[in-house]
Task: inverse folding
C-alpha cells in the first residue's frame, strides 16, 4: 500500500507532527462554506522548509496528494482534499522572519495571519493592507489571490507579494522574485504562483510589500435612496480619481442585519462605507469631494470621523457582515458567491442580481468591495429544505454567467476552489487548456492539490 | 528546404507584406544597443490577428523561428533574431481599438506607440502613464515588462496590463485576463506573458489600465553636494510615503551632458528631478515636504513649477538623457545597462558603481528611476579601441553581480535579451529551470524567439 508506506516514511521524521486523529482529519476536511467535507488521510505539521520539501518528496515517491492548509477560512474549499492524501498544515510555520522598515517589506512564513503580522509591525509605522475580512494566513491569501476592503487603494495579493520561497512538486526549493521593487528578469514566477491554489507549489516563505500607516485615517457612512444611486456614486467617485482607501456597499437587507447583530440604527436603505488615508488636509479634502458626489446622488448627509474608535466600530461591523447576515436567519446556512465586473457594469450587475434573488424567494443580502467592481451575495438556505441548496446554486450560477457576459470574472477574490471550476472554460476558453499545460509541466504526477483549478479531476 | 517552402506559403497570403529586401532585413537585425546585427530571413507585416495566427501556424509547420517586433527601441536586443526566421513587424497593427473612459481602460493593437495612445486619449482626460523614454510600441513594452520615470507612482507594465489576446506557438488564439479590476480565477496568464519577450506567445491585442490626468502637475529639480546626499534624500522621501509621480537621479556627468546638449545651466553636481500629481493643494503640500527633505540633506533650494512648458522642458531633457550623453563624446557608442536594488541598498549600489567606473577610465554617467531603486549606467566606448567594449562589459557584469549581491535584480526594466541572460542562473537558481519547463510546455518546438530568456540557444 503506497499510502501506508508514505505515512510510515513521513512519521519517521515528523513523529507526532503527523496526525491521523479523527478530529484532525475532520478539521481539515472542510472550509467555511457549504461544501460537503472530504478528509485527508493524514495531517502534517512541518516546522521548516526542509521538512516541507521532505514531505513533498515522500509523497511524490508514492504518488500521494499533498494539500496546503492555512487557517481553513477559504470560501470555495480550495484546501479541501478531493482525493485524500496529506494535508500540510502551516500553523507551526508562523514566524515573521525579517522586517525591513527601510525597504518597507517583510518576509514571513506562510502560517502567519494578517492580524498577527500587523500586530508585529505596530512599532514600525508600517502595515500590511490586504484585508479579506477573515484573519486568514498570508500563505492562504497568496494562494487565493485574496483581496478585500482596501484593494481599491493598495491592490490585491498580486500587487503585494514581492517573492516566494516555494517547494516544487519534485521537492526542489526555488526562490522567486527579488526584494527590488521591479524586475524585467524573466517570467514572473511570483505572479504565476499567486492565485495558484496550491496546485503548482507549496510556498514556505513570502516577501510582502508594506505601506506606511497614513498620518490621518477617516471613515464614514451614508445611505442612498436606492441601489442604483449608491452604485452610480461609486462609479463617479472612482472616475473622479478620489483616492479612496475603502469603498464598500451594503444593501438594505445587510444594513438591517447589522442593526440586529450590532445594535446599530442604520436606515432600511443601501449604504456606502468609505475610508480615506492621507494627511489630515488631504483626507478632509477627499471627504468633502466625496460628500458632494453623495449629495448629487440623493444620499444622506455624509458623516465621517477620524476618531479611531468610531472607525474601528464601523469596520468591525463590516467585517462581521457575514456573521451578522447568518445570524439574521437562525439555523440558516450560507452559500456565498463573489463576482467582479468592470465598474461601468456594476449598477447593472447588482440590479439584475437583486431582481433574480428576489424572484427566488431566498434571502440574499449583497455587499462588497464595489470600488473594484466586486460584490458578494450571501444566499441563506434552510438546511432542512433540500430544494434550497439547488436554488442557491442556480442563483450563484446565474451571477457567474452574468459577470462573464458583462466582461468580468466569475470570482474577484474568493478563488476557484470547488465552486467556480465550472466557469473556467467559459471565462478562459483555450486559456484554460494553457493552464493545464503549465500545471502538467510543473507537476506531471498531479500530486499538488489534485482536482483543483485545471481541467480533470 | 523548409525555409523556402515556409516563405512561399507566407507570401501566398501576405503578398507584398512579406519582405525579403536587404533594407528590411538590416532594419530588423539590430536594437538600439551595441549588439552585432543578426538579420531574420524575412519580415512579415500582418494586419490582423488571424494573419498573425496563420504566420505562426505556417512557421510551426516548418519549424521556422518567429520573432515579434515593435519599434526596435529595445536596449537588450530582445527582438533580434538569433537563428534567422520570420520577424513579425506589428507596425501595421497600430489601431486603438476601444477606449472606455467609464472603466478607465483601453484596448490597443500591439503596434500602437505610447505617444500615439496618449495623443488619442487627449480628449478623455485620461492618460497611459508608463513611460520608458523611447516612444516604444505597447506590445514591445508589455513583452519587456517596461517601466520608466512614472513607475514609482503608477507601476510597471505588470501593473497596467489587464489582459491580452495572444497567438500561441501552435497558432491557437487565447484571451487572458478580463476587464474587471481583479480576479482570482486561475493562473495569471496575463502576468506570465508580461515580460516574456516573445518567447511564449505573440500578443495581438492589449487591454491597458488608464489613469486620470491629475488636476495639477508640478515638477522641479535640485542639486546635491554629492551622490550620497541625493540618494539618501530619495530613500527618505520614499520612506515618508510622499506620493512622488517621478523621482529621477542624474549624476554630475549627466548634468554636464544636459548642459552641453540642451543649453541648460545645471551645476556640476548630482541632481534629482521630481514630479508631483494631485490637486493644486496636495501637490504644493508634497512639494513643501520634499523641499524640507532636500534641505536636510544639503540640497540646493528646491525650485518647482506647475507651468506646463517648464515641466515639458524638464522631462524632454531627461528623456534625451541617453542622446545627450552619447553626444558628449562624438563618435562614441554606448553600452547601456540597468539594475534595480532594494531602496536601502541604493546609495551603496550607486557609490560602488561610480567608484568602479571611475577606475575603469571609461566615461560612464549614471541616471535612473531611483524611486524604484533602479538606475542605469551609460558606458561610452570608442568603437576604434577594441579593449573598450570588453572594459564596458566587465563593468556591466560587476553591476549585475552587485545588484544580485544586494538583494536586487540584474535588470529593472530593460529586460533579459542578449545582455542579461548570463545572470539568469545566478538570479533565479532552479527557478530558471522552471522557466525552461514553462517555455517547453507552451512552445515545445522552440519556434518563438528561440535562444532568448531560457537556458539553451
Result:
Amino acid at each position: 500500500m503506497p499510502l501506508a508506506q508514505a505515512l510510515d516514511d513521513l512519521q519517521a521524521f515528523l513523529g507526532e507532527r503527523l496526525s491521523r486523529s479523527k478530529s484532525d482529519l475532520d478539521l481539515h476536511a472542510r472550509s467555511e462554506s457549504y461544501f460537503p467535507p472530504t478528509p485527508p488521510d493524514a495531517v502534517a505539521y512541518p516546522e521548516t522548509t526542509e521538512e516541507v520539501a521532505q514531505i513533498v518528496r515522500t509523497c511524490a515517491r508514492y504518488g500521494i496528494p499533498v494539500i496546503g492548509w492555512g487557517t481553513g477560512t477559504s470560501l470555495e474549499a480550495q484546501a479541501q482534499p478531493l482525493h485524500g492524501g496529506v494535508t500540510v498544515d502551516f500553523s507551526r510555520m508562523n514566524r515573521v522572519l525579517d522586517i525591513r522598515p527601510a525597504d518597507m517589506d517583510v518576509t514571513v512564513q506562510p502560517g502567519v495571519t494578517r492580524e498577527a503580522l500587523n500586530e508585529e509591525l505596530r512599532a514600525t509605522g508600517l502595515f500590511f493592507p490586504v484585508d479579506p475580512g477573515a484573519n486568514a494566513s498570508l500563505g492562504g491569501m497568496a494562494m487565493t489571490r485574496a483581496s478585500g476592503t482596501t484593494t481599491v487603494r493598495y491592490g490585491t495579493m498580486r500587487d503585494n507579494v514581492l517573492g516566494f520561497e516555494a517547494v516544487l512538486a519534485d521537492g526542489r526549493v526555488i526562490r522567486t522574485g527579488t526584494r527590488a521593487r521591479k524586475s524585467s528578469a524573466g517570467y514572473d514566477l511570483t505572479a504565476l504562483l499567486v492565485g495558484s491554489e496550491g496546485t503548482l507549489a507549496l510556498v514556505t516563505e513570502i516577501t510582502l510589500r508594506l505601506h506606511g500607516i497614513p498620518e490621518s485615517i477617516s471613515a464614514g457612512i451614508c445611505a442612498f435612496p436606492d441601489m442604483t444611486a449608491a452604485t452610480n456614486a461609486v462609479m463617479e467617485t472612482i472616475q473622479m480619481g478620489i483616492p479612496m482607501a475603502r469603498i464598500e456597499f451594503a444593501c438594505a437587507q445587510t444594513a438591517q442585519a447589522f442593526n440586529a447583530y450590532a445594535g446599530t440604527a442604520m436606515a432600511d436603505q443601501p449604504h456606502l462605507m468609505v475610508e480615506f488615508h492621507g494627511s489630515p488636509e488631504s483626507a478632509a479634502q477627499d471627504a468633502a469631494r466625496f460628500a458632494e458626489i453623495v449629495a448629487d446622488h440623493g444620499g444622506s448627509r455624509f458623516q465621517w470621523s477620524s476618531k479611531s474608535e468610531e472607525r474601528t466600530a464601523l469596520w468591525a461591523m463590516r467585517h462581521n457582515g457575514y456573521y451578522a447576515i447568518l445570524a439574521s436567519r437562525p439555523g440558516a446556512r450560507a452559500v456565498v458567491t463573489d463576482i467582479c465586473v468592470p465598474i461601468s457594469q456594476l449598477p447593472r450587475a447588482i440590479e439584475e442580481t437583486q431582481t433574480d434573488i428576489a424572484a427566488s424567494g431566498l434571502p440574499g443580502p449583497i455587499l462588497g468591495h464595489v470600488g473594484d467592481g466586486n460584490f458578494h451575495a450571501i444566499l441563506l438556505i434552510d438546511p432542512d429544505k433540500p430544494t434550497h441548496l439547488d436554488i442557491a446554486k442556480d442563483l450563484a450560477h446565474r451571477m457567474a454567467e452574468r459577470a462573464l457576459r458583462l466582461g468580468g470574472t466569475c470570482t474577484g477574490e474568493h478563488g476557484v476552489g470547488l465552486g467556480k471550476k465550472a466557469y473556467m472554460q467559459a471565462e478562459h476558453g483555450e486559456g484554460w487548456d494553457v493552464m493545464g499545460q503549465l500545471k502538467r509541466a510543473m507537476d506531471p504526477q498531479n500530486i499538488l492539490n489534485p482536482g483543483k483549478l485545471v481541467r480533470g479531476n
